[in-house]
Fold:
Amino acid sequence: MIANKELVFSKDLANKKVHVVREFDAPVEQVWKAWTESEILDQWWAPRPWKTETKSMDFREGGRWLYSMVGPEGERHYCLADYQKIVPNKSYTYIDAFCDENGNKGEDFPNMHWLVEFKATGQGTTVAIEISFSSEDSFQKIIEMGFEQGFTMALGNLDEVLAK
Structure:
């Protein structure tokens, strides 16, 4: 049995940002790999019963992760992460967007800017995430799509992956 760690999820509508802080029982290097290697991301990124399938991943500044979220009925929603700045085992930034299977960004959904930071603690690693939106409408749309619940479930999946 894996005890889920406390998750801090705060919404800052005035500044169009979401902040998420979560601790994991693993060293920074192991948690970093879980966030940056597709073989591991595919094991936890999607909230159950959905799963993630990577189509391609090039984790470097200017690189891209193209993946799909696959539902229980086989439905697919493609997403991408365009990596910007990467500081190994410390932080990385990327633009996240919904897209088609070839990585062409969709017009119907907002893009999000992610900053993911990793810090060693006495017992493990704290991951702090700041997600920025271009408008209040974009912010509201993602929240209404159930982002908080889905991302919370995914981070719980990561606890299980790290415990293996």
Notes: Residues 147-163 form the longest helix (17 residues).
